[in-house]
Amino acid sequence: LAAIGMAVGAPLIYADQAHSMAKVRDSTGFSKDVCAVVLLSNIARLVWWFHERYELVLVVQSCLMVVAQIALLSLVLRFQPGSYASSALRADGSSSGRPFGFWTWTSLESYIVFLVCYTLFLLALQITIGRVSSMYNALLGLYALGLESTLPLPQLIANQKRRSLAGFRLSVLAGWSLGDLFKVVYFLFLKPGSPFQFLAGALFSLSVDIGIVAQAKMFAEKTAED
């Protein structure tokens, strides 16, 4: 049951967010960078499996997360208020001035092309370097799970800049918090032999989740005072 929860629970966290955006036809409030973190980290984690051979349930989880995030990203792009290319500010309130316009593209095809190239690049490195270098594989694991642990960070930053959590579903926050807490328990007590990167990443994510919970309370009180 714990394994099924690990595999299926994480992608389902975003179902309510997707439903909300489709219902109101507006993706304001949800940071598109969350999709970037999830996709880049899970693709790297899948490539890392070729060396580390961690549990199959975590492989299934990553595959489902990639599919779920591409679907969510398509909704974010469809219902974003205006074009990223023609606006000085993105929907999450932050500046769009990034090198090569990274992750500010307007068509889903651009994201797919980038993700395919990114995957092929990591696979090429794994074949040429990962087969002979244990240090490279350790760094790849740190990169994949370290990046994954920053998942709530873009949302934390977007909330702070807008001084509001409007448009961001608290069900996602609850899912993040409970999921990260479950991961900590899972890797500490159920699978203590798992690579240490999993536990370290879960602990960091949980600390950011707590920060967003504090924002929810702080900004709710500010709104009530106004």
Automatic annotation (TrEMBL):
<dbReference type="GO" id="GO:0016020">
    <property type="term" value="C:membrane"/>
</dbReference>
<dbReference type="GO" id="GO:0005829">
    <property type="term" value="C:cytosol"/>
</dbReference>
<dbReference type="InterPro" id="IPR052241">
    <property type="entry name" value="SLC66/Scramblase_ANY1"/>
</dbReference>
<dbReference type="GO" id="GO:0005802">
    <property type="term" value="C:trans-Golgi network"/>
</dbReference>
<keyword id="KW-1133">Transmembrane helix</keyword>
<dbReference type="GO" id="GO:0045332">
    <property type="term" value="P:phospholipid translocation"/>
</dbReference>
<dbReference type="Pfam" id="PF04193">
    <property type="entry name" value="PQ-loop"/>
</dbReference>
<feature type="transmembrane region" description="Helical">
    <location>
        <begin position="56"/>
        <end position="79"/>
    </location>
</feature>
<feature type="transmembrane region" description="Helical">
    <location>
        <begin position="100"/>
        <end position="129"/>
    </location>
</feature>
<keyword id="KW-0812">Transmembrane</keyword>
<protein>
    <recommendedName>
        <fullName>PQ-loop-domain-containing protein</fullName>
    </recommendedName>
</protein>
<dbReference type="GO" id="GO:0005768">
    <property type="term" value="C:endosome"/>
</dbReference>
<feature type="transmembrane region" description="Helical">
    <location>
        <begin position="170"/>
        <end position="190"/>
    </location>
</feature>
<feature type="transmembrane region" description="Helical">
    <location>
        <begin position="196"/>
        <end position="214"/>
    </location>
</feature>
<keyword id="KW-0472">Membrane</keyword>
<dbReference type="InterPro" id="IPR006603">
    <property type="entry name" value="PQ-loop_rpt"/>
</dbReference>
<dbReference type="GO" id="GO:0042147">
    <property type="term" value="P:retrograde transport, endosome to Golgi"/>
</dbReference>
